[in-house]
């Protein structure tokens, strides 16, 4: 473990600034524990190895954030490489997450031995922080009154459009893989009467070794159970870790790099559920494993479109 | 859980009903769609109908004909099922109808409907990196809005994004019976086929004595 951290700390990549052995940047009360080793440092985040923990110390904290701990389950891929799978769900009313705001969650610590994920989570105004999904800021948000199905029964119906996004980011803040589930639904308070925009979106950084191994999108609805959009994606990069470690001195770097397994991200699944009472639930189940997976951090966002 | 429970109810009731007399079988057969009933469904004008038997639906497993999400029907023991399949002439789409007695059943938990799409959906069909960094899949709701059901739920799926399989399933509870219709195919018409068959099957079920 310590040897690996030292190797990673020696990594030099064009977008990364290394400071092996140095203390973390000044992040106020977010300063890392003493004894932690710096793996990677960028303008945005310092990633530290602290025993079995990998900690992400961000320059800027999310405003008004709270921390949350998730205990995951150990998984073993077909290759025999193990990783951790985490899952959870959150339900929001409009009072808790109005259309003008986005709910953001990002990884701040990860324990690969015990499969523990520590996140900071915050509800922020759209455009307030960089973590917000980029292409949503300019989207017009409309809440519609429905005049069709439900209204014909004398019920007052409303319509909402919401998304739930999950992603893994590398230290320079690039979303290497990303899944988004979108949904529009009509509800009366006790029944979901219609739904559309059951859309699954997939993104990965093609050209850097990332590829989509498989994917699917499902949609479903019942009156009392609500409407769902569910998106699955499995992504692989055989070069991610090799490219990083190849920067080590020859021939050690080359030899070490060739030994590194591929890196994987799996989203199984990312869901958005529109509930009969107009609330909405973001549901996630995600895992990372393989070479240098510790350097990838998990993030989520829920909002309107 | 509800979906699984529903299937157990379904299977249990089927097991009982399948041990009944030939008269019951005739009555049950009257509830199912036949070739004439689906002739009006676009894509099934010349459909081959086949009753379920011996835990298999032969047409479902034939070469070139894939079940939901590329798999076979799962979660439903077809040897005890009371149902029929309809395969289009090209073999590109299959729709399966199943009926069971379940007086207390409701369709309340959409998430469990995923199980109805079968194990094939867990196979995660797809193409390794196809040179695109953004993919967008919009699932056409199967939405059997006009089906005369006391309780109804549906689920649709698109798998692969680029080499896609389309699948859909819907449950209807009416007259103390549960109707399940699953369909799959190589293009989006599978959703329409499944919906149209489902609505026709629900109509027939609702109008039965």
Explain what you see.
The complex is a heterodimer of chains A (305) and B (209). Chain A is mainly β and 305 residues long. Chain A has two domains: 1-61, no CATH class; 63-304, no CATH class. Chain A contains four helices and 17 strands. Chain A has helices spanning 2-9, 149-152, 240-245, 252-258; strands spanning 37-41, 45-50, 53-58, 66-71, 73-76, 82-92, 101-111, 116-125, 144-145, 158-169, 175-187, 192-204, 210-222, 226-237, 263-274, 280-290, 297-304. By secondary structure, chain B is α+β, with helices and mostly antiparallel strands. Chain B has a single domain (2-126, 137-207), classed as Protein Transport Mog1p, Chain A, CATH 3.40.1000. Chain B has a six-stranded antiparallel sheet, with helices on both faces. The longest helix of chain B has 19 residues, at 189-207. Chain B is globular and about 55 Å long. The interface between A and B is large, with 41 and 41 residues. Strand 13 of chain A pairs antiparallel with strand 5 of chain B, so a sheet runs across the interface.
């Amino acid at each position: 473990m310590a040897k690996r951290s030292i190797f990673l700390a020696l990594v030099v990549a064009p977008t990364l600034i290394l400071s092996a052995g140095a203390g973390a940047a000044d992040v106020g009360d977010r300063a890392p524990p003493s004894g932690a080793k710096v793996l990677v440092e960028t303008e945005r985040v310092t990633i530290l190895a602290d025993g079995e923990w990998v900690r992400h110390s961000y320059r800027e904290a999310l405003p008004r954030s709270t921390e949350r701990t998730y205990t995951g389950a150990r998984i073993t891929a077909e290759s025999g490489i193990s990783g951790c799978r985490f899952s959870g769900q959150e339900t929001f009313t409009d009072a808790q997450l109005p259309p003008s705001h986005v709910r953001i969650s990002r990884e701040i610590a990860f324990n690969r031995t015990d499969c523990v994920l520590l996140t900071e989570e915050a509800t922020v105004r759209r455009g307030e922080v960089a973590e917000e999904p980029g292409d949503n800021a300019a989207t017009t948000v409309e809440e519609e009154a429905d005049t069709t199905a439900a209204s014909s029964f004398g019920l007052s119906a409303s319509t909402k459009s919401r998304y739930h996004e999950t992603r893994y980011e590398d230290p320079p803040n690039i979303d290497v893989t990303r899944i988004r589930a979108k949904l529009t639904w009509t509800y009366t308070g006790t029944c979901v009467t219609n739904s559309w925009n059951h859309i699954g979106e997939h993104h990965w950084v093609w050209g850097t070794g990332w590829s989509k191994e498989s994917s699917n999108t499902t949609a479903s609805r019942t009156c009392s159970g609500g409407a769902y959009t569910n998106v699955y994606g499995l992504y692989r990069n055989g070069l991610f870790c090799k490219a990083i470690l190849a920067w080590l001195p020859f021939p050690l770097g080359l030899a070490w790099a060739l030994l590194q397994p591929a890196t994987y991200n799996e989203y199984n699944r990312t869901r958005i559920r529109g509930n009969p009472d107009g609330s909405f639930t973001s549901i996630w189940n995600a895992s990372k494993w393989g070479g240098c997976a510790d350097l990838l951090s998990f993030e989520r966002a829920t909002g309107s479109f | 859980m509800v979906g699984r429970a529903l299937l157990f109810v379904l299977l249990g009731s089927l097991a009982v009903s399948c041990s009944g007399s030939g008269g019951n079988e005739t009555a049950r057969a009257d509830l199912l769609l036949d070739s004439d009933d689906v002739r009006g469904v676009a894509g099934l004008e010349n459909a081959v109908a086949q009753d379920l038997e011996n835990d298999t639906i032969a047409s479902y497993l034939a070469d070139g004909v894939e079940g939901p999400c590329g798999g076979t029907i799962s979660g439903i023991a077809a040897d005890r099922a009371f149902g029929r399949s309809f395969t289009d002439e090209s073999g590109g789409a299959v729709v399966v109808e199943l009926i069971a007695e379940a007086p207390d059943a409701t369709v309340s938990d959409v998430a469990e409907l995923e199980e109805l799409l079968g194990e094939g959906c867990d196979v995660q069909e797809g193409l390794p990196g196809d040179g695109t960094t953004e993919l967008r899949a919009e699932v056409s709701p199967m939405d059997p809005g006009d089906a005369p059901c006391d309780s109804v739920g549906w689920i649709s799926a698109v798998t692969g994004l680029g080499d896609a399989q389309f699948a859909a399933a819907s449950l209807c509870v009416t007259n103390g019976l549960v109707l399940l219709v699953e369909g799959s195919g190589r293009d989006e018409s599978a959703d329409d086929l499944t919906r149209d068959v489902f609505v026709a099957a629900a109509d027939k079920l609702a109008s039965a004595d």
